[in-house]
Amino acid sequence: MSPAPEYSFAVEYDGPPISYDLPRALPITVDNIPVASVVSQVPLSDTLSLPVVQPLLPPHHHTVKELKTLSSESRVSKELELASERTVSPTSVIAFDHRASQINVCELSGELSSSGPFDLSNGNDGSGECEFSDVCDSSRLLEESSSSELRGGVCRSTRSFNTMEFNALGVSNDDEKESFDFNELNLNQQDWCSTESVLSLEYPSTRVSSLKAEDCDGRRVPAVSFNVDYDDDDDGDLNEEFDVEETVTRPVRREPLTKGKKGSCYRCFKGNRFTDKEVCLVCDAKYCSNCVLRAMGSMPEGRKCVTCIGFPIEESKRGNLGKCSRMLKRLLNQLEVRQIMKAERFCEANQLPPDYISVNGKPLSYEELITLQNCTNPPKKLKPGNYWYDKVSGFWGKEGQKPSSIISPHLNVGGPIQPDASNGNTQVFVNGREITKVELRMLQLAGVQCAGNPHFWVNEDGSYQEEGQKNTRGYIWGKAGTKLVCAFLSLPVPSKSSNSIGEQHSNMASRSIPDYLEHGIVQKLLLVGCSGSGTSTIFKQAKILYKSIPFSEDEHENIILTIQSNVYTYLGILLEGRERFEDEILADLKKSQSCVLDTTGTSPKPDDKTIYSIGPRLKAFSDWLLKTMASGKLDAIFPAATREYAPLIEELWNDAAIKATYERRSELEMLPSVASYFLERAVKILRTDYEPSDLDILYAEGVTSSNGLACVEFSFPQAASEETMDTTDQHDSLASRYQLIRVHARGLGENCKWLEMFEDVEMVIFCVSLSDYDQFSVDGNKMILSMKFFETIVTHPTFEHMEFLLILNKFDLFEEKIEQVPLTKCDWFSDFHPITSRNRTNSNSNSINNNPSLGHLASHYIAVKFKRLYSSLTGRKLYVSVVKGLEPGSVDASLKYAKEILKWNEEKPNFNSSEYSMYSTEASSFSH
Amino acid sequence: MSVTELKERHIAATETVNNLRERLKQRRLSLLDTDISGYAKSQGRTPVTFGPTDILCCRTLQGHTGKVYSLDWTSEKNRIVSASQDGRLIVWNALTSQKTHAIKLPCAWVMTCAFSPTGQSVACGGLDSVCSIFNLNSPTDRDGNLNVSRMLSGHKGYVSSCQYVPGEDTHLITGSGDQTCVLWDITTGLRTSVFGGEFQSGHTADVLSISINGTNSKMFVSGSCDSTARLWDTRVASRAVRTFHGHEGDVNSVKFFPDGNRFGTGSDDGTCRLFDIRTGHQLQVYYQPRRDTEMAHVVTSIAFSISGRLLFAGYTNGDCYVWDTLLAKVVLNLGSLQNSHEGRISCLGLSADGSALCTGSWDTNLKIWAFGGIRKVI
């Protein structure tokens, strides 16, 4: 007996603490490194990533000469000729070196210098940003000087060029598709086609629109004119350039065919430049009214060819977003047009990529852009480019230029402002920025003393003070004439809607996230469990913990009603019990009396007063309550009943009979365990002015919609410690939104048809009530049922690769119960033989390391049981958390644990496997 | 009477019922001398033939960002409502393939949707156990969303299926995961009658699908996880008119045959069946045998052509077979055609005039198929 038990004794002691502590250790280490990299990746993934793009470019440039040699397929050769023809013309060279200079490829510089207009750009070579603006200027010059015909040439040559490249890469395979489309067109002479042609017939293709005619040629130069928009942004430029190139290729492949008729439709090749046409936002393909619906399909992202769906739009067309053409209005009805325009404006692919905008020299992140666009007074018509932003006063302008507008101040976007942001040379500084001459002029006109090159602080309300001094010198906007002067000097004036900061913040909080952001940002947690496992408690707890207003007014109202009608139900059960007890006693009494009668022969005085008897008034109430309950109309009579019977309740509750019945409540099977909590507060609850406490709500049954599904969206409040730990956490303030979805256990069984709907959840939280081990339902032991349910959920194909967190709930109840009822009551736990210290003291039962209580031992044992089951089913690790559902801290901890697991999963690939195994020391050494 | 005694009697009774059921089945089989295809063949009928380009995908409705779960056509005009896991109902104009409404739902887990007979409103239901009605003509709120005009709540399980009673904008029948079907009065929002549930002859598992008889709107049929289909009379809620056994898996889809005397079913066991409501007999099994032992693909949804000669059945693997109902032959697989869906076909629907078929899939798209060949008189 001596050595062996001692050994196992030691093992017993070690096992549980490890498995318990481990989870805590894990998240903390994960936190530091991982989060930073996650955030930096978020914006990248949303745009077409730059790195993929660039490798394609160099070969593309080499093809300048290869073009001539690369004669291949019959169709392409035609294009080729065209392209090579154009290369001879000077403009086409420009097109090439234009791009070349952007990527700083030096090979072509020789050619460059030979072309006259480009001397300028050459001279500036290497001077960074300036170069580009110059290039653009020159190209603008060029455009102005050259004829439209020439421009068409430029464009076409670059395009055919691109086609080449993509043919080689095998990227565009829409050849077949196109031809199929045509087949379809021809074959489908059914009503489908005919109806459409009827539609289109209304609009003669020869309709002349002078506006469009102008466009016909002008629009041909997207690749060039586009650059005009880009003054300075090197990165964005490249990126954008590529996007355009990439997408331009597809429709352009048909260009040779349309050559004969310029301005014809890209699909049917009919019509001329005067025909009314719709333009693809991405690739600039133009379709006539006959073809537009076929080419653009159902336009899930607005006016884009079917093949261009998913690609970012051409930046020069951003202004057209949501602006409907007359043609669409004619083709479609108003509702349809509205939907298209809505999709166009709000779909994810059409949003401005955040890294195209840099503020104070720092490209924006996704979240920063959202902050910027959603502030109360956002910069209007935000285009890609470099901007400066004065956070104190809200001045906003293009880099190197005077302020263009005044936006909401104090937005946390971009870096700190540079003194030379607006390229001023007045030596007068406002909020650390050297202002421009125009501004100085305005300040002088506004009556601000600017002698001696002062440094000013200007607040958002226009009050200014000299740097280092306390007192406000005055208000810029104080004078009536100032705004007039500003208008004259084309300087911005503050908008009327500029609000105080406090207001703004409240706006920020209440603002809902735009639709296109929701996608992918909210991490979903699915909360499941058998009925009675406390999923609803955890759900309610999450609501109370993380929502500033946990329950809306309606919900609140409902909760009160639910709780009150629950209490009435409990009372009813109690009264029913009273009747039963009374009858029993009376029957007993009669029996004994009849015995007495038999023996004595005297008729006894009928005395049916027992301890369970109540007065007539209460009796009436009792009868009424039982009757309404029996008829199932308790809900219907409800709110009125409170007013009427509230005083009666007190009387009833204080009645001795009820008290006596309540004493025997364990005999009333119908009475749930939570009933005693409410019954003891019945008098308070059934008052009309009852306000439920958080605990009341947690205890209450049926508050969360028990029928279906309930979900709550929340984000974890930033703990003070977390903030100091890493600033990157701020970044994912938007990203770290969680949605806790609680589904009812009903119908979750084997033939569950809808579990597939939850394939996008990040994690399944499975809830088991620890105290269920001695509970039995019709189908058997509740713990076993939970286990089986767990098995079906875990093995469900939808959750094949999903993480599971097991919540062992109701630990508080369990701890009490385990002392009285052995765990072996449940067959699954028949091998639980805890070895406890003989000199066990109850005082330190909480310190698990020294002397674990029976409750802790048993919960660890159950956890290990589940872990083993899980790993035998899936070969993975199950995360377990022991929770007391009624304690906010406990639920908070376990939900935070869930968050850490999710974070850890994102970061896991960054750690090598050996490190990982270090963390995953499971409590599998648990022996028995 | 003790509990054990009761249990024993219960077991004995169940056994008796099963025996009787078995005998009934045997008797039926002995009476059933032929099925449709056998008879048709004996009459020298040949299956319908389709060329590869006879049925074409002529529209692709793009716009959902989640799996499409359900669709329904209007009875007039060519409009479609579709429900998807992105939490939206979209109303499409099938001719222009454009959206006319995009309704954001309060509960994203939507499973079914339906167009009202007049096309004025749409209904949808899902895991929230509520059937929500949206009036398409009501004004939108600030964010451009339509508000729920009526919530039909009362189900204790998810709403798996809903259909308006033909010709009545105010009545709707839903099937639910709580094993019941309910006839609703939309104007009051109350249940008119409940089919199944506490009553003896109701379904014993989740109801997955319902279909109302087009010729007699008092009759409807429901398919359930208990692998049966049941016929109900809306005037008699207390018991099912008839129970149809035969399937070996959940009945995912039921649809009335155009003449109203028969109905088709699609099931987890990979078969479609045709039942006669007058005799209660199974008329035909539509099953494409697999080459090897691989699992049969589940039938998710079915639809009949307007004549009833063709049965369209969508399968989980993305196939969409066109069955010749008369000869029980697959005459075309839409899944193998060009431009077909890339995911499971989750729902099917035929336009009111029968000129087009719409399929919804987990690849987030809906496609409209129409006859593209030259029509021959069959």
UniProtKB/TrEMBL annotation, chain A:
Membrane listed as a keyword: no
Database matches in SUPFAM superfamilies: P-loop containing nucleoside triphosphate hydrolases (SSF52540), Transducin (alpha subunit), insertion domain (SSF47895)
Location(s), subcellular: Nucleus
Alphabetized GO MF terms: G-protein beta/gamma-subunit complex binding; GTP binding; GTPase activity; zinc ion binding
Keywords, comma-separated and alphabetical: Calcium, GTP-binding, Magnesium, Metal-binding, Nucleotide-binding, Nucleus, Transducer, Zinc, Zinc-finger
Main location: nucleus
PROSITE patterns named in the record: G_ALPHA (PS51882)
GO cellular component, one term: nucleus
Residue positions binding Mg(2+): S536, S706
Residues given in the record as GTP binding sites: D726, T727, T728, D729, Q730, N809, K810, F811, D812
Database matches in Pfam families: G-alpha
Keyword Zinc-finger appears in the UniProt entry: yes
GO biological process: G protein-coupled receptor signaling pathway
Family: Belongs to the G-alpha family. XLG subfamily.
PANTHER family from the UniProt entry: OS01G0977800 PROTEIN, PH DOMAIN-CONTAINING PROTEIN
Name this polypeptide is given: Extra-large guanine nucleotide-binding protein 1-like isoform X1
Gene: LOC101508300
From TrEMBL, chain B:
Any one GO biological process: signal transduction
Residue ranges of WD repeats: 61-102, 152-194, 200-242, 244-285, 338-369
UniProt-listed InterPro entries: G-protein_beta_1-5, WD40/YVTN_repeat-like_dom_sf, WD40_G-protein_beta-like, WD40_PAC1, WD40_repeat_CS, WD40_repeat_dom_sf, WD40_rpt
Official protein name in the record: Guanine nucleotide-binding protein subunit beta-2
Keywords for this protein: Repeat, Transducer, WD repeat
Transmembrane segments: none
Cited PROSITE patterns: WD_REPEATS_1 (PS00678), WD_REPEATS_2 (PS50082), WD_REPEATS_REGION (PS50294)
One annotated Gene Ontology cellular component of this protein: plasma membrane
Family affiliation: Belongs to the WD repeat G protein beta family.
